[in-house]
Every structure is written in C-alpha cells, then in structure tokens.
Specification:
alpha/beta; AF1104-like; Rossmann fold; 2 domains; 7-stranded mixed sheet; two-stranded antiparallel ribbon; nickel; Type_II_PanK
Length: 361
C-alpha cells in the first residue's frame, strides 16, 4: 500500500483523511468528547441491522451464535470508548470505528454479510440500466444532460445499508431510483459547485478521470456507470476504483468487473459507447471510508496521469476527503445520510454535496 500519487506532498502535512474533527489537542484524553460519543452512538445504532444480516449468512456455520457474539463484542468496545477514549487503540475516529467493525466480522467468519442484498439490488439495477441511459441520451443540451446524470448519482447513492434508518427502509419497502431522482432536495444543495463544474464540463477538458465508487445496486449501475459512460463518449479515459474486500453494501472490485461485463454487448460497448478506455482498479481498500495515504500499487500506477479525481458517496467523499486537496481537478459528490453529517455541514438530512475544486495552473 502506497500514497495516492495525486495527493500533494508532503503527504504527512498536507493530507488528513477524516473530515469531521472528533477531538482537538486541548481535549482531555481520558474523557470522550461530545462528537466522539455522538458518532459512537451512530455505529452502535447500526449493530442490530448488522447482527440480523450476519444471522442469516448461510455461508457461516453457527451464524446466529457468532452474530450474537459479534454484536456483543462490538457493543462492548464502543462502550469502552465512551468510558476511556484511549482504550482499544483509541481515541476513535470515523476510520477506526468502521475498521474495528469489519475486523470483528471477519474474525467471526463473516466475509460479506450483505452479499445477498447486493446481488438482488444489482440484478434490479441492471434491468433498469437501458431505460436510465435512454432517458439521459434523449437530453440534447450538454449542461442539462450533466445535471440529470448528477441527480442520478445522488439518487443511486441513497442505497446505503450503513445508515440504520435507510437499512430499515430497504428491509420494509425498498427505494425507487426513478422516484428518488424526482424527489431530491432542491438546489442550492448544502455544497453546490455544479455550475462551475458544468462550465468546465462543456469545454470537454479531461483526458483521464479516476472515480472512487461507493455502493452496489442503483448507486454504481444507475448512478456512476451512466456518468462514466458519458465521460467515455466525450473521449475521457475512466478508471473506476473499487474496494478489494467487502464493507457494508459497497461494491467490490470483483463484483464491479462482473457488473460491467454483464452490461457490455457483444462488441464491448455500453449501449453504443466504446469501453476500450474504461478500466476497473482494485483500490486496496476494505472500508466504507477511505484513507488515501494507503492505496494499492495498481491504482497508484493507473492514476498517476489523471487530471480529474472523483470521490463518490458519503463515506469516501464527505466523511473522509471532503477537504482533501489534489494535484489535479477534484470532485466530491454524495448524499448526506446521517443527521450528524448534516449538522456539521449546516445542511439537511438527505441534502446533497457537490464540491468541485479546479486546479489553477
């Protein structure tokens, strides 16, 4: 694992993964801060949905008993952090809270507890892909077509089973992609640089874009892939960077490779668009957030000459890396699905973030 090559150097002083400061140097190391307690509670509230998924994992012997122990162990560590932030390798932050959860799941034999729902949502989204692309292609104006594609990314990004509230909604009713497109919070969004991005987009400037993707289902298939297809149509080479290992319902490198192969026709096209410039990379990541000081050699090699970096999703583009600077243009795009994130940004729950930074040469 090596630093992402498009981060400014020196990495140690110029890059901080976590967006929200859980504590400051003046805070008492032996006392949990209000922010730490608030986020510990966010992760604690997700335990029942994770336990339920783990209990039904037919690939794991004695899954219900192991799921019970996982839930108890993780809840215990979270309570320890409330009492003593320095316990269990703390003080905790957004990366550590997720890492401990994923490590515990693997320790008890759970490799991918969301596999079943990911497969189901991928199949649904694949069936809708032609319709979504057709609606986009029918928009003649470049700027309006871009906004439609961006709205599709936001609508797809709501498929996030790391949010306790959304996990419950999915288990009851599911969520309609096309309906979500129509019902996004109105602009201006909490961070809204779409007009600036649109102005650059129309000039067709980027030669190579790296997109750090997020969730399975509608997110990757109906949100990111139509957007990536449009970049390809405009002559941009596109690298899709996906997780090496499963985390919540995030799409993995192997799953994304399979999805794209299913969507291509016999000529290797995505509904009329050549995919010879589409690459899929293993980011080396195993969390729903990402620390760009550690990525795979493969991704680093493929990214070194990119002139646009896109971090998509609340975990990669908001909770981590929202303020990250790069040597090239960058875009952070995602939906706000935690009240705590909305409060930090001064926005609303299910608000949208579209943060664009253009490098001045």
């Amino acid at each position: 694992m090596i630093p992402f090559p498009l981060l400014p150097t020196p990495i140690e002083t110029n890059y901080r993964a976590c967006t929200i400061p859980y504590r400051f140097p003046c805070d008492n190391l032996k006392k949990a801060t209000p922010t730490e307690i608030s986020w510990i509670n966010v992760f604690a509230n997700s335990i029942p949905s994770f336990k339920k998924r783990a209990e039904s994992d037919i690939t794991v012997p004695d899954a219900p008993a192991r799921a019970k122990i996982f839930a108890e162990r993780y809840a215990g560590i979270l309570e320890d952090w409330k009492k003593d932030p320095e316990s269990n390798g703390g003080p905790p932050d957004g990366i550590m809270l997720g890492r401990v959860r994923e490590h515990l799941l693997r320790e008890f034999g759970f490799k991918d507890i969301f596999k079943k729902v990911k497969d189901e949502e991928n199949a649904k989204a694949i069936s809708l892909f032609p319709e979504v692309v057709s609606l986009s292609d029918a928009i003649e104006d470049d700027g309006k077509r871009l906004e439609n594609l961006v709205r599709g990314i936001f609508a797809g990004n709501i498929f996030d089973l790391g949010s306790a509230q959304l996990a419950e909604a999915f288990s009851k009713d599911g969520i309609s992609f096309l309906a979500t497109c129509q019902n996004l919070v109105p602009r201006p969004w909490v961070i809204d640089d779409l007009d600036n991005f649109q102005a650059k987009w129309i000039k067709k400037p980027w030669k190579k874009a790296v997109i750090f993707v997020d969730n399975s289902g509608a997110d990757i298939i109906l949100g990111i892939l139509p957007f990536a297809r449009e970049l390809l149509r405009r002559g941009t080479q596109v690298v899709l960077a996906a997780n090496e290992l499963p985390a919540i319902n995030d799409v993995t490198y192997t799953e994304l490779t399979d999805i794209v192969s299913q969507l291509k026709d016999g000529n290797g096209q995505l509904i009329g668009v050549d995919t010879s410039k589409l690459l899929i990379a293993n980011s080396g990541n195993d969390l729903a957030v990402i620390d760009l000081s550690r990525v795979s050699h493969e991704l680093a090699y493929l990214s070194s000459d990119a002139d646009l970096v896109i971090l998509e999703g609340m975990g990669r583009g908001i909770e981590t890396n929202l303020y990250a600077q790069f040597k090239c243009d960058s875009l952070k795009i995602g939906m706000v699905k935690h009240v705590e994130v909305a409060q930090f940004l001064g926005g609303r729950l299910y608000d949208c973030v579209f943060k664009y930074n253009e490098v001045q040469i």
